[in-house]
Design brief:
With about 290 residues, this protein is α+β, with helices and mostly antiparallel strands. The chain has 9 helices and 16 strands. It has helices spanning about 30-40, 55-60, 75-80, 95-100, 140-145, 145-155, 165-170, 175-185, 215-230, and strands spanning about 5-10, 15-20, 45, 85, 120-125, 135, 155-160, 190, 195, 200-205, 210, 235-240, 245-250, 255-260, 270-275, 285. The longest helix has 15 residues, at about 215-230. The N and C termini lie far apart (about 60 Å).
Length: about 290
């Protein structure tokens, strides 16, 4: 018997709704249809699919190895399944910085030569106010850039680290704060423009992009801000307002994303897995 699955585009440039029963996501042929849709639409929304944690991890595991939880392991039963429980309460300082930094536009895994392929987010409890998640298609944004701009940025190198994120989170960071950030996310050099194997191109920009190698620092920071502003225009974006039971997958190498601010006591709890990457940028370089 063929599994019933519906895929409905959200808009012309980004996103699709996927309607399938939670118990059917691992049926023959279904994970392949989901991955094909992810590569086409870049954000997949499963409205109120109400997956169990076991189903959620099972679908994630089908696609390959998950990123480990070295920085986010909390010893809980959920964590032992390989799920990162995102909640602002009861976190240590590193984890709170990480969660608060999610309010800035970013791409996951810019420290690695192979960023995670896809992040899966499951809503256990939405925020009573705020806490939506925005997504921006870097593929669509790059394609729409003027040709002169594409030529200007094609060979540039960008330095990624946690410091520009931390400087937005703290009015007066201490030497200990800088040491924590550098230990978790040291400066790493990447190409600004990522030409991918399928012929599409994205940009390695967002909150962790600090400056451009070889340009005066302020000039590079200005260029990165301009590119982020361009990529996050309404025509390239989708905002998801969470309902309990929703699950969203996104194609990390082609997207920026961010959570909208929400209070620590808002009740927002998300479960997350990250599927390891499938495409290498190039061997990352430690910035000199």
């Amino acid at each position: 018997m063929t599994t019933h699955i519906e895929i409905e585009p959200i808009n012309e440039r980004i996103g699709a709704y996927v309607r399938v029963a939670a118990g059917d996501v691992l049926n023959e042929g279904v994970p392949e249809q989901i991955m094909d849709a992810l590569n086409k639409y870049n954000v997949l929304v499963f409205p109120q699919v109400n997956m169990t944690d076991v189903q959620f991890v099972g679908l994630s595991d089908y696609y390959g190895e998950k990123h480990d939880l070295a920085l986010t392991q909390d010893g809980s039963e959920v964590s032992k399944l390989g799920i990162y429980r995102i909640e602002k309460n009861d976190k240590d300082k590193n984890q709170l910085d990480y969660i608060r930094g999610n309010d800035l536009w970013h791409m996951d895994g810019t420290i690695y030569n192979v960023p995670g392929k896809s992040t899966m987010l499951k809503c256990e409890s939405p925020a009573n106010t705020g806490g939506e998640t925005d997504f921006a298609s870097l593929f669509a944004a790059y394609e729409a850039l003027p040709e002169a701009r594409k030529r200007e940025i094609d060979k540039l190198r960008v330095i990624h680290c946690f410091e520009p994120v931390g400087l937005k989170l703290y009015d007066a960071p201490t030497p200990e704060d800088f040491a924590r950030w550098n230990a978790a996310f040291p400066e790493t050099e990447q190409p600004l423009v990522w030409h991918q194997k399928d012929g599409r191109t994205s940009l390695l920009i967002g909150g962790t992009a600090y400056y451009i190698k070889g340009l005066p620092k302020e000039e590079g920071i200005k260029l990165l801000a301009e590119l982020e502003e361009w990529a996050t225009q309404p025509e390239f974006t989708y905002r998801h307002s969470w309902t309990k039971g929703d699950m969203v997958m996104f194609n990390n190498p082609g997207l920026l994303h961010r959570s909208l601010p929400y209070a620590a006591d808002s009740g927002r709890i998300m479960h997350r897995t990250t599927i390891k990457g499938m495409e290498e940028i190039e061997a990352p370089k430690v910035a000199a």
